[in-house]
Specification:
Layout (H helix, E strand, L loop, with lengths): L1 E2 L8 E4 L7 E3 L2 E3 L4 E4 L9 E3 L2 E3 L6 E2 L7 E3 L2 E3 L17 E4 L7 E3 L2 E3 L4 E6 L5 E3 L2 E3 L4 E6 L2 E6 L2 E3 L15 E6 L8 E6 L2 E3 L3 E5 L13 E3 L2 E5 L2 E5 L8 E3 L2 E4 L7
Parallel strand pairs: 1-4, 2-5, 3-6, 4-7, 5-8, 6-9, 7-10, 8-11, 9-12, 10-13, 11-14, 12-15, 13-16, 14-17, 15-18, 16-19, 17-20, 18-21, 19-22, 20-23, 21-24, 22-25, 23-26, 24-27, 25-28
Length: 262
Protein backbone atom coordinates (compact mmCIF):
# COMPACT_ATOMS: atom_id res chain seq x y z
CA UNK A 1 0.00 0.00 0.00
CA UNK A 2 1.30 3.42 -0.98
CA UNK A 3 -0.47 6.18 0.95
CA UNK A 4 0.63 9.77 0.39
CA UNK A 5 -1.49 11.32 3.13
CA UNK A 6 -0.80 14.18 3.77
CA UNK A 7 2.37 14.51 1.66
CA UNK A 8 2.19 18.19 0.76
CA UNK A 9 4.45 19.03 -2.15
CA UNK A 10 4.90 15.46 -3.40
CA UNK A 11 3.83 14.51 -6.92
CA UNK A 12 2.49 11.04 -7.55
CA UNK A 13 2.05 7.75 -5.76
CA UNK A 14 4.19 5.75 -8.20
CA UNK A 15 6.12 7.09 -11.18
CA UNK A 16 7.96 5.01 -13.77
CA UNK A 17 10.08 8.08 -14.64
CA UNK A 18 11.87 7.13 -17.91
CA UNK A 19 12.36 3.43 -17.19
CA UNK A 20 11.11 0.78 -19.63
CA UNK A 21 9.86 -2.81 -19.31
CA UNK A 22 8.67 -2.57 -15.71
CA UNK A 23 5.55 -4.29 -14.35
CA UNK A 24 3.55 -2.87 -11.44
CA UNK A 25 1.19 -5.54 -10.09
CA UNK A 26 -1.22 -5.64 -7.16
CA UNK A 27 -0.51 -2.33 -5.44
CA UNK A 28 -3.02 -0.16 -3.58
CA UNK A 29 -2.24 3.50 -4.18
CA UNK A 30 -4.27 6.18 -2.46
CA UNK A 31 -4.35 9.89 -1.59
CA UNK A 32 -1.77 10.92 -4.21
CA UNK A 33 -1.42 14.72 -4.43
CA UNK A 34 -1.35 14.52 -8.23
CA UNK A 35 -1.61 11.17 -10.07
CA UNK A 36 -1.75 7.75 -8.47
CA UNK A 37 0.40 6.11 -11.18
CA UNK A 38 2.34 7.95 -13.89
CA UNK A 39 3.56 5.98 -16.92
CA UNK A 40 7.11 6.56 -18.18
CA UNK A 41 7.94 9.60 -20.25
CA UNK A 42 10.22 9.93 -23.24
CA UNK A 43 8.70 7.06 -25.21
CA UNK A 44 9.82 4.34 -22.77
CA UNK A 45 8.46 0.95 -23.88
CA UNK A 46 6.84 -2.06 -22.30
CA UNK A 47 5.26 -0.70 -19.11
CA UNK A 48 2.57 -2.89 -17.55
CA UNK A 49 0.16 -1.89 -14.79
CA UNK A 50 -1.83 -4.88 -13.52
CA UNK A 51 -4.42 -5.44 -10.80
CA UNK A 52 -3.85 -2.23 -8.88
CA UNK A 53 -6.40 -0.25 -6.92
CA UNK A 54 -5.98 3.50 -7.31
CA UNK A 55 -8.21 5.77 -5.26
CA UNK A 56 -8.56 9.26 -3.81
CA UNK A 57 -5.92 10.89 -6.03
CA UNK A 58 -6.14 14.68 -6.10
CA UNK A 59 -6.06 14.52 -9.88
CA UNK A 60 -5.63 11.46 -12.16
CA UNK A 61 -5.74 7.82 -11.19
CA UNK A 62 -3.44 6.46 -13.95
CA UNK A 63 -1.77 9.01 -16.22
CA UNK A 64 0.31 8.61 -19.38
CA UNK A 65 3.24 10.81 -20.20
CA UNK A 66 4.25 10.30 -23.81
CA UNK A 67 4.53 6.56 -23.32
CA UNK A 68 4.57 3.86 -26.00
CA UNK A 69 3.13 0.35 -25.82
CA UNK A 70 1.96 0.30 -22.21
CA UNK A 71 -0.61 -2.26 -21.01
CA UNK A 72 -3.11 -1.13 -18.36
CA UNK A 73 -5.09 -4.18 -17.31
CA UNK A 74 -7.34 -5.35 -14.49
CA UNK A 75 -7.13 -2.21 -12.36
CA UNK A 76 -9.80 -0.65 -10.17
CA UNK A 77 -9.63 3.15 -10.40
CA UNK A 78 -12.21 5.02 -8.35
CA UNK A 79 -12.96 8.17 -6.39
CA UNK A 80 -10.07 10.05 -7.99
CA UNK A 81 -10.03 13.73 -9.01
CA UNK A 82 -10.80 14.73 -5.43
CA UNK A 83 -10.06 18.34 -6.43
CA UNK A 84 -13.60 18.25 -7.90
CA UNK A 85 -15.18 16.00 -5.29
CA UNK A 86 -18.22 18.26 -4.83
CA UNK A 87 -18.82 18.03 -8.60
CA UNK A 88 -19.56 21.73 -8.84
CA UNK A 89 -17.15 22.49 -11.69
CA UNK A 90 -19.14 22.74 -14.92
CA UNK A 91 -16.53 24.70 -16.93
CA UNK A 92 -14.00 21.90 -17.57
CA UNK A 93 -10.35 21.48 -16.70
CA UNK A 94 -10.75 18.48 -14.43
CA UNK A 95 -8.59 15.35 -14.52
CA UNK A 96 -9.72 11.75 -15.18
CA UNK A 97 -9.57 8.22 -13.85
CA UNK A 98 -7.37 6.78 -16.64
CA UNK A 99 -5.72 8.95 -19.31
CA UNK A 100 -2.82 7.82 -21.55
CA UNK A 101 -2.12 11.52 -22.39
CA UNK A 102 0.11 12.13 -25.41
CA UNK A 103 0.88 8.42 -25.69
CA UNK A 104 0.62 5.82 -28.44
CA UNK A 105 -0.09 2.11 -28.84
CA UNK A 106 -1.57 1.85 -25.33
CA UNK A 107 -3.96 -0.98 -24.40
CA UNK A 108 -6.52 -0.34 -21.66
CA UNK A 109 -8.34 -3.60 -20.97
CA UNK A 110 -10.57 -5.15 -18.30
CA UNK A 111 -10.34 -2.22 -15.92
CA UNK A 112 -13.08 -0.78 -13.76
CA UNK A 113 -13.14 3.02 -13.63
CA UNK A 114 -15.95 4.46 -11.56
CA UNK A 115 -17.08 7.29 -9.31
CA UNK A 116 -14.25 9.53 -10.40
CA UNK A 117 -14.93 13.26 -10.29
CA UNK A 118 -13.69 13.56 -13.88
CA UNK A 119 -13.92 11.32 -16.96
CA UNK A 120 -13.67 7.58 -16.37
CA UNK A 121 -11.30 7.00 -19.30
CA UNK A 122 -9.98 9.93 -21.34
CA UNK A 123 -7.75 9.72 -24.41
CA UNK A 124 -6.10 13.14 -24.69
CA UNK A 125 -4.13 13.66 -27.91
CA UNK A 126 -3.18 9.98 -28.02
CA UNK A 127 -3.07 7.62 -30.99
CA UNK A 128 -3.37 3.91 -31.54
CA UNK A 129 -5.06 3.32 -28.18
CA UNK A 130 -7.28 0.27 -27.62
CA UNK A 131 -9.98 0.57 -24.95
CA UNK A 132 -11.35 -2.96 -24.52
CA UNK A 133 -13.78 -4.73 -22.18
CA UNK A 134 -13.71 -2.10 -19.45
CA UNK A 135 -16.52 -1.31 -17.03
CA UNK A 136 -16.94 2.45 -16.67
CA UNK A 137 -19.70 4.04 -14.60
CA UNK A 138 -20.85 6.99 -12.51
CA UNK A 139 -18.01 9.29 -13.49
CA UNK A 140 -18.26 13.06 -13.87
CA UNK A 141 -19.29 14.38 -17.26
CA UNK A 142 -18.19 11.50 -19.48
CA UNK A 143 -17.52 7.81 -19.04
CA UNK A 144 -15.17 7.49 -22.08
CA UNK A 145 -13.86 10.66 -23.76
CA UNK A 146 -11.89 10.98 -27.01
CA UNK A 147 -10.15 14.36 -26.70
CA UNK A 148 -8.12 14.86 -29.86
CA UNK A 149 -7.60 11.10 -30.11
CA UNK A 150 -6.88 9.34 -33.40
CA UNK A 151 -6.58 5.82 -34.85
CA UNK A 152 -8.06 4.31 -31.71
CA UNK A 153 -10.64 1.67 -30.81
CA UNK A 154 -13.32 1.29 -28.11
CA UNK A 155 -14.69 -2.25 -28.20
CA UNK A 156 -16.93 -4.25 -25.85
CA UNK A 157 -17.02 -1.77 -22.96
CA UNK A 158 -19.89 -1.50 -20.48
CA UNK A 159 -20.83 2.07 -19.54
CA UNK A 160 -23.65 3.02 -17.22
CA UNK A 161 -25.15 5.29 -14.59
CA UNK A 162 -26.67 3.99 -11.36
CA UNK A 163 -28.38 7.16 -10.06
CA UNK A 164 -31.46 8.92 -11.38
CA UNK A 165 -31.58 12.71 -11.81
CA UNK A 166 -34.69 14.35 -13.27
CA UNK A 167 -34.15 14.98 -16.97
CA UNK A 168 -34.81 18.71 -16.51
CA UNK A 169 -31.92 19.09 -14.08
CA UNK A 170 -29.21 16.93 -15.64
CA UNK A 171 -25.76 18.47 -15.29
CA UNK A 172 -22.34 16.98 -15.94
CA UNK A 173 -23.07 14.76 -12.95
CA UNK A 174 -24.94 12.39 -15.26
CA UNK A 175 -22.18 11.25 -17.63
CA UNK A 176 -22.54 10.66 -21.33
CA UNK A 177 -21.33 7.25 -22.49
CA UNK A 178 -18.95 8.50 -25.22
CA UNK A 179 -17.91 12.06 -26.02
CA UNK A 180 -15.56 13.25 -28.76
CA UNK A 181 -14.02 16.70 -29.20
CA UNK A 182 -10.84 18.64 -29.88
CA UNK A 183 -10.05 20.72 -26.82
CA UNK A 184 -6.44 21.48 -27.70
CA UNK A 185 -4.77 23.84 -30.17
CA UNK A 186 -5.36 21.89 -33.39
CA UNK A 187 -7.84 19.42 -34.87
CA UNK A 188 -6.46 15.93 -34.25
CA UNK A 189 -9.66 13.94 -33.69
CA UNK A 190 -10.25 11.23 -36.28
CA UNK A 191 -10.16 7.61 -37.43
CA UNK A 192 -11.71 6.12 -34.30
CA UNK A 193 -13.92 3.01 -34.08
CA UNK A 194 -16.63 2.57 -31.43
CA UNK A 195 -18.10 -0.92 -31.66
CA UNK A 196 -19.85 -3.61 -29.60
CA UNK A 197 -20.29 -1.37 -26.56
CA UNK A 198 -23.27 -1.20 -24.21
CA UNK A 199 -24.39 2.03 -22.53
CA UNK A 200 -27.19 2.14 -19.94
CA UNK A 201 -28.93 5.24 -18.52
CA UNK A 202 -26.20 7.64 -19.65
CA UNK A 203 -27.05 11.24 -20.53
CA UNK A 204 -26.22 10.45 -24.18
CA UNK A 205 -24.88 7.51 -26.13
CA UNK A 206 -22.40 9.25 -28.46
CA UNK A 207 -21.91 13.02 -28.44
CA UNK A 208 -19.61 15.33 -30.44
CA UNK A 209 -19.14 18.95 -29.46
CA UNK A 210 -17.12 21.82 -30.93
CA UNK A 211 -14.69 23.71 -28.71
CA UNK A 212 -13.95 26.23 -31.45
CA UNK A 213 -10.87 24.49 -32.88
CA UNK A 214 -10.73 25.19 -36.66
CA UNK A 215 -11.43 22.10 -38.77
CA UNK A 216 -12.68 19.94 -35.93
CA UNK A 217 -15.29 17.32 -36.75
CA UNK A 218 -16.18 13.65 -36.86
CA UNK A 219 -13.82 12.36 -39.54
CA UNK A 220 -13.28 8.75 -40.59
CA UNK A 221 -15.20 7.33 -37.63
CA UNK A 222 -16.91 3.93 -37.51
CA UNK A 223 -19.74 3.61 -34.99
CA UNK A 224 -21.38 0.20 -35.23
CA UNK A 225 -23.07 -2.62 -33.33
CA UNK A 226 -23.50 -0.62 -30.12
CA UNK A 227 -26.51 -0.64 -27.80
CA UNK A 228 -27.46 2.47 -25.81
CA UNK A 229 -30.60 2.11 -23.72
CA UNK A 230 -32.52 4.55 -21.51
CA UNK A 231 -30.51 7.55 -22.72
CA UNK A 232 -31.44 10.56 -20.58
CA UNK A 233 -30.92 13.24 -23.24
CA UNK A 234 -29.77 12.02 -26.67
CA UNK A 235 -28.84 8.72 -28.19
CA UNK A 236 -26.61 10.21 -30.89
CA UNK A 237 -25.83 13.92 -31.20
CA UNK A 238 -23.24 15.70 -33.33
CA UNK A 239 -23.15 19.49 -33.28
CA UNK A 240 -22.04 21.11 -36.54
CA UNK A 241 -18.45 20.59 -37.62
CA UNK A 242 -16.20 19.45 -40.46
CA UNK A 243 -17.73 15.96 -40.49
CA UNK A 244 -16.67 13.56 -43.25
CA UNK A 245 -16.39 9.90 -44.22
CA UNK A 246 -18.09 8.54 -41.10
CA UNK A 247 -20.15 5.34 -40.97
CA UNK A 248 -22.88 4.75 -38.38
CA UNK A 249 -24.69 1.43 -38.65
CA UNK A 250 -26.39 -1.41 -36.75
CA UNK A 251 -26.72 0.52 -33.49
CA UNK A 252 -29.63 0.50 -31.05
CA UNK A 253 -30.67 3.70 -29.24
CA UNK A 254 -33.57 4.04 -26.82
CA UNK A 255 -34.52 7.05 -24.70
CA UNK A 256 -35.82 6.92 -21.15
CA UNK A 257 -37.75 10.19 -21.10
CA UNK A 258 -36.12 12.50 -23.64
CA UNK A 259 -37.75 13.44 -26.97
CA UNK A 260 -34.34 14.10 -28.57
CA UNK A 261 -33.11 10.60 -29.35
CA UNK A 262 -31.09 11.44 -32.49
Amino acid sequence: ILDDTPAAGSWQGFSFETYAYITLDGFVIRHSPYAGITLPSGGALGTRVFNCEVKFSWKHGILGNGSIGALIQGNNVHDCVTENWERLNTSGGWASGINPLLSSAITIVNNVSHNNNGEGICLTRSGGVQVLQNTVYDNWGVNIYFDGASYSLADSNLLYVTFNEPVTSITANTPRAFVMADEQVSAMLGSVTITNNVGIRCAAGVFFFDMGIPGTGVKNWRISNNTFVDCRRQGLWFVSGAHSNTEIKNNVFTAQDSPNLL
